[in-house]
Amino acid sequence: MLPPIVTTIADVRAAVDAARAAQKPIAFVPTMGALHEGHAALVRAARGFVVVSIFVNPTQFGPKEDFAKYPRTIEADQKLCGEAGASLIFAPGVEEMYPTNSVTFVDVAKLGDHLCGAARPGHFRGVCTVVLKLFNIVRPDVAHFGAKDYQQARIIAQMVRDLNVPVEVRVEPTIREADGLALSSRNRYLSADERAVAPRIYQMLQATRVRAAAGEIDAARLESALAADLATIPGARVDYARVVDAETLQPLARLDRPAVAAVAVFLGTTRLIDNLVLA
């Protein structure tokens, strides 16, 4: 059964209010559309009245990132949402989310300044702003995010804690292809040759975990080895390869606390991100 699509704040609030009156918990999965099995897994993990938002958020795109070319596949997205068990799709237009003269933004300091934030200045300000707006609109009990976007999930969790937003943030495991490539809407842009070598990104992360498990605790050496491994992938250009504190996302000298290896790699013009918790 296809879930209904609503496009206005008033309509999604009315639907959520009706579900809450029926004693249903409200779950929320925010997306930009172009959905895949990773998104479906988030929907399936949700319980109760499940709202999926589909909104290509202009404020998280940089000046050299083509907002206009981001894939819009609403019919396929609706079908996937229905098969995964979504109750409602909220697909607002830009004017609905950002009325004229909107001047307020949300910025989570430090967590968004490096990794993807260094390469995409202003990106996480846009993410936090739209997610907080969506939380205020949908008012969910639980919101589901994917671990592939580790930095984003940590930033959202920090925002929720700092601003006392009454929502539980749950981070679901990364969904991968059989060969290890993390599912992403951007994978569709890979050429056949690029797709063939893309799984090596995850293999290099796994090698980093093996090094750490074998006793290497110097973060700089782990980073150097990871970057060198990634550079061997044909056609790859490494944006970053970092080992950071799993909680604060700050650089580490030694693996004396929970850590995550996080990478961003260009294959051709396609930027892929992935991560793996080390300890």
Automatic annotation (TrEMBL):
Subcellular location: Cytoplasm
Source taxon at top rank: Bacteria
Keyword presence, ATP-binding: yes
Pathway, per record: Cofactor biosynthesis; (R)-pantothenate biosynthesis; (R)-pantothenate from (R)-pantoate and beta-alanine: step 1/1
Keyword vocabulary terms for this entry: ATP-binding, Cytoplasm, Ligase, Nucleotide-binding, Pantothenate biosynthesis
Residues that coordinate or bind ATP: 32-39, 146-149, 175, 183-186
Catalytic reaction annotation: (R)-pantoate + beta-alanine + ATP = (R)-pantothenate + AMP + diphosphate + H(+)
CDD domains to which the protein is assigned, alphabetical: PanC (cd00560)
Binding site for (R)-pantoate: Q60, Q152
Residues annotated as catalytic: H39 (proton donor)
GO biological process, one term: pantothenate biosynthetic process
Binding site residues for beta-alanine: Q60
GO terms for cellular component: cytosol
Keyword ATP-binding recorded: yes
GO molecular function, one term: ATP binding
E.C. designation(s): 6.3.2.1
Chief localisation class: cytoplasm
Family: Belongs to the pantothenate synthetase family.
Miscellaneous comment text of the record: The reaction proceeds by a bi uni uni bi ping pong mechanism.
Oligomeric and partner information: Homodimer.
Protein known as: Pantothenate synthetase
